Fold this sequence. Notes:
Blueprint lengths: L6 H15 L31 H10 L13 E5 L11 H19 L3 E5 L1 E2 L3 H13 L10 E2 L3 H16 L3 E11 L4 E2 L7 E3 L8 E3 L1 E8 L6 E6 L10 E4 L13 E3 L6 E6 L12 E4 L5 H10 L26 H14 L3 E6 L15 E11 L1 H12 L4 E3 L3 H15 L1 E3 L3 E5 L2 E5 L1 H6 L1 H4 L8 H6 L2 E7 L3 H16 L4 E7 L1 E3 L16 H6 L3 H10 L4 H14 L9 H10 L6 E3 L2 H24 L19 H22 L3 H29 L3 H22 L4 H8 L23 H4 L9 H5 L4 H15 L17 E7 L2 E6 L6 H26 L4 H4 L2 H29 L2
Parallel strand pairs: 1-2, 3-4, 11-13, 17-22, 21-22, 23-24
Antiparallel strand pairs: 5-6, 5-16, 7-8, 9-10, 9-15, 11-14, 12-13, 16-18, 19-20, 25-26
Amino acid sequence: MAKEFNHVEVEKDRYEWWEHSGFFKAESCRNNKPSFTKVLFTKVMLMLKALFTWSWYEWWEQSGSFKAKSCSNKPSFTMVLPPPNVTGALHPGHALTAAIQDMIIRWKRMTGYNALWVPGMEMERRLRGQNTKQLRSLGASLDWSRECFTMDRERSNAVTEAFVRLYNEGLIKRKSRLVNWDCVLKTAISDIEEKTSLKVPGYENTVEFGVLTSFAYPLEDDLGEIIVATTRIETMLGDTAIAVHPDDLRYKKFHGKFAMHPFNGRRFPFICDSKLVEQNFGTGAVKITPAPDPNDFEVGNLHNLKRINIFTDDGKINSDGVSDFVGMPHFEARVAITEALKSKGLYRGDINHEMRLGICSRTNDVIEPMIRPQWYLDCKSMAKEALDAIANEEIEIIPKKYTAEWRRNEKEAENEANRTFAGKKVSVDSRSRCLDTWFSSGLFPLSVLGWPNDTHDLKTFYPNSVLETGHDILFFWTARMVMLCKKLGGDVPFKKVYLHAMIRDNHGRKMSKSLGNVIDPIDIINGITLEGLQKKLLEGNLNPSEVKLAGEGLKKDSPDGIPACGTDALRFALVSYTAQSDKVNLDIKRVVGYREWCNKLWNAMRFAMSKFTDVYAPPTDDYVPPTDMPFSCQWILSVLNKTILKTVSSLETYEFADASSAVYSWWQYQFCDIFIEVVKPYFYGDDSIAKGHAQDTLWICLDTALRLLHPFMPYITEELWQRLPSPKNYTRESIMISKYPSVVEKTRCKWPSLQSNLSDQLNKNCQREKEMEEKEIKALANLSSLTVLTENDAALSGCKVSRVNEELSVYLKLEGAIDVTAQREKLNAKLRDIQKQKDTLSQKMSAKGYAEKAPAHVKEEHLKKLASIMQRLQSIEEDIQTLNAK
């Protein structure tokens, strides 16, 4: 049995080594590889906290392993880290981005690419140090020598150059429009650009804004329905008209007709308005509510529409509204009306939508609508080029399901023709003006490589190879990069776009500070107590009621806090989640499971190192596995070959969850659970040839599989790989610059699978090979003895029989192994239970009208279930007969 793990003792060993090695000294150049002598294999290891993290990361960085060369004969591969607009701490979404991107860049680096990953930051300089430390903790192998800030001199020059070029082409214009004006800041405030939940005074729960809800109004005279959309669904109680464009051919037949209010039957007319309605926006139909909406008020005056005020002074539905909602607070009515529309079958869905909100999040000042001059960028031609880039396959979007969203959003941009940008300083006509973060970030793939200067980096690394980011900013950031970079750089900014899912908690809820379910990735890596989590709530800006609610959530979900899981376990869990659709429900228990798996990898290496003697010389690159090696060795190498094929093909198609699953399955189920067990007899026996084959196979498996796993789990793989003995005349550097495994074609189809060739192995004439296979079967099945029978031998009685294939059956002696009487009673009880299931199902299938009325898929399901029941009955009856024969 392995010793109980004591991470405090292990950390003490590592600390002593750090201090002895001079890592704490400022003058230490730290160019030497970390030593292993202080952390012994006599202890069970868990990859907790930073036992190996910082020693390896600093060595990687100091040795220049993260740096790409501007001039190289290798093919280039480029990614940029999206500049996180954060307040200093990364959240799980950033951790997912870092895990996926680092996995990609490490894989490409190991496959022979001149791989460049550029870090970009978009935060106050005082917070950047904290952010970079967190990224380093996650193992992000960024080229820190190229780190840039979206407001540094080079990026600001790029923004100025872009503005001037676009202005000179007549694409940027200054217009006076209605804006949200903050009288404290004396500046325009950007519109909400996505769905947002905010705390509103007088409401216990937060209220959702930035949602465009679509619903249908039924029409008179059986003309069908018309769909409208609004960000304030509650105002439909005061609707008095539907406006359409007079030239819209779709609605010509509705001119002069009436719609019916679904809640009170009120009739209201269609009106034609060419100024208010844009044919190509939304459905081309606009609901008119003259009382609470300033724009609709003007339309109501023009068309002499009735004004229905539906709100009281304190924001509740008044008697002029529908009786079902009278007295409801404003935003509660919003939810109730949506549900009522759903029950009537009139709800048509909702999407994220820009909207103006009357409270400034920075000052809490009331926002005043004011006419102010603003800069606008005409995106019509650029939006068309962005659409063409997808249609012409210049850019591939992964997963493909988001291609339709790209086309829809870009088409809207093309139709709208103008997009507003507000927030980054630039000098125009000697006056200080602003462009927002999306403008500067939209230039990032160009500016990060030195544009507008003709640099070596720009020639070598542009366009980028892939952009990896969240699907939620496909339009806000990704599309803007394509439009601006293609316009200014002459080519698309990247060849592929990989969009990952959004992180949610294990209940599927959006992570929110007010719910207390936002998790700092560092807390997962290092662990944190419940008291520590609650303290973080108090350090935030939540009000007392939110602190109480969040605290209750923490007690329920993390009563013992979060256990320390380590970087590798967190990374692997996040990558394995990418198979989920557009949301990732993060469960800490899954991360803990991968932490335990790290411990299993450590123990597997511990076993192997005990079998590699001081004089053992591992095989070299030209090693060809001999044909007389034990069957288990042939089998594990065959399965490893298939795992390499599956992993590499999955990485190439950006199916990262499949890649992680393939690697995990080989390590867990083939190598640790089977091979290590069946190979043990060779190390304890007298057959030196078989022992040599077992040693070589064990070394090949570990060397290859650690390199296969490295992009997913960089720290444990480096630590374990460095411990392997090296072949003669081989200098072991870092696993991250070693060669990524590839399929060995000459053995790809040669080696056998375990089950299909088991009978062949047992029937071999070679006595030595036969004895080796028998050893493996006995070890794997934990048998005290094994006898091989031929078809001429008499059948054994009192045995449980399992048929492997047409040529092989396995007999297990039951005598003395089980209590026959108790087992017989257990089987008879199980037989009666399954018989009841059969009778119930048979009665249902023979019921009157079943054949005519039951749907086809139900009949098919019942037939499959009945066949399964019959098979189980037969199996149990055979087992009972076997016991009765004793």
